[in-house]
């Protein structure tokens, strides 16, 4: 699970030069069955196997530990294979393998919009795994596509896999899921086993609440997250992962804020703050103090707003964080300026300014 609301994903990475060498690693690649490049090389060139002869070495390069390649060149080489599959009316698995590899490359390049589109094409081409060896990759892509599509603003598309997974794995059954994955080494190629994990499915429900919120369905988002909270609290405590509640509590605070439930928003932020203090998560501590200050200011409680700001400053001083001390002074000046400003003329009811954005979601669970 991870911070959700107002997520920026990993789009900031898109500024990196597209032709920079990419180092292959085992993050996604280890989950993928090894490509039999030697077998592909032995095949005679025909219309039906020309794809395999060209795809196998690309796939092996992408998913070989430590392999280096140009991301833009690899994307172009993979894209050139799609017409071959369409001409030969290839089986769904071949389309899935191609789009899965494309999505992996786009993700590594920080191109979440393209990664989401490739993932969506893969899941349309093969809605259900046709080969057990690819079942985990299918699940992995279904989960990742929610994040990628949402980060690209394609919330309706992101809802589909989120809701499908929620139906497949009800909240009431999460405790029966494995606590962690393992690798089955009984065959020639290690295969992932014991999945999905409890954390993966808890993350899916958190994604679902995030997407609903971003669609403006605040009440449905709040309801989804409220259903999730007791289950997540119990499961994360059992797993020794209580600090992971920080993201869900931030989401609930945002949902409540949008619905004008300020007391509830404050309660969720305070619980988030206490967890962050216990975990030594300085960034979340500062963010929680800040948002509590903003919330108090918007509720016309200047004394409480200044109290939260003073606590922010005391924490920064205790931690020796000079940059945060400087920011506290800037916040104090701004807060004083806002309090001294004459009241704005009354207009038609407008929603109060939303507290600052939450930190970006973590790129991987």
Automatic annotation (TrEMBL):
Compositional bias per record (Pro residues), positions renumbered to this chain: 353-365
Keywords from the UniProt entry: Signal
Entry superkingdom: Bacteria
Protein name stated in the entry: Tetratricopeptide repeat protein
Residue numbers spanned by region Disordered: 320-365
The keyword Signal is assigned to this record: yes
Signal peptide (residue range): 1-26
Coiled coil as UniProt keyword: no
């Amino acid at each position: 699970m991870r911070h959700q609301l107002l997520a920026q994903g990993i789009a900031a990475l898109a500024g990196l030069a597209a032709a920079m060498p990419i180092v292959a690693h085992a993050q996604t690649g280890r989950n993928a069955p090894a490509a039999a490049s030697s077998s592909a090389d032995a095949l005679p060139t025909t219309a039906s196997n020309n794809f395999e002869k060209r795809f196998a070495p690309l796939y092996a390069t992408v998913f070989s530990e430590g392999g280096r390649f140009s991301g833009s060149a690899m994307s172009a080489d993979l894209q050139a294979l799609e017409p071959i599959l369409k001409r030969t009316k290839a089986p769904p698995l071949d389309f899935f393998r191609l789009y899965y590899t494309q999505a992996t490359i786009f993700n590594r390049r920080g191109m979440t919009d393209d990664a989401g589109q490739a993932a969506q094409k893969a899941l349309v081409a093969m809605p259900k795994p046709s080969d057990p060896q690819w079942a985990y990759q299918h699940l992995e892509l279904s989960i990742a596509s929610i994040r990628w599509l949402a980060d690209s603003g394609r919330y309706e598309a992101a809802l589909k896999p989120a809701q499908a997974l929620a139906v497949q794995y009800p909240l009431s059954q999460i405790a029966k899921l494995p606590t962690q994955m393992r690798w089955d080494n009984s065959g020639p190629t290690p295969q992932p086993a014991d999945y999905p994990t409890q954390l993966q499915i808890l993350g899916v429900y958190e994604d679902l609440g995030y997407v609903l919120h971003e669609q403006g369905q605040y009440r449905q988002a709040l309801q989804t997250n409220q259903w999730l909270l007791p289950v997540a609290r119990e499961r994360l405590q059992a797993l020794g992962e209580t600090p992971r509640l920080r993201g869900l509590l931030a989401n609930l605070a945002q949902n409540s804020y949008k619905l004008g439930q300020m007391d509830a928003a404050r309660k969720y932020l305070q619980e988030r703050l206490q967890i962050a203090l216990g975990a030594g998560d300085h960034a979340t501590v500062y963010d929680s103090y800040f948002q509590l200050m903003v919330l108090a200011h918007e509720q016309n409680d200047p004394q409480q707003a200044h109290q939260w700001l003073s606590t922010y400053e005391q924490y920064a001083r205790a931690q020796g964080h000079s940059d945060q001390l400087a920011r506290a002074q800037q916040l104090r000046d701004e807060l004083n300026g806002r309090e001294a400003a004459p009241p704005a003329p009354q207009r038609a009811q407008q929603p109060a300014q939303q507290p600052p954005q939450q930190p970006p979601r973590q790129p991987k669970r």
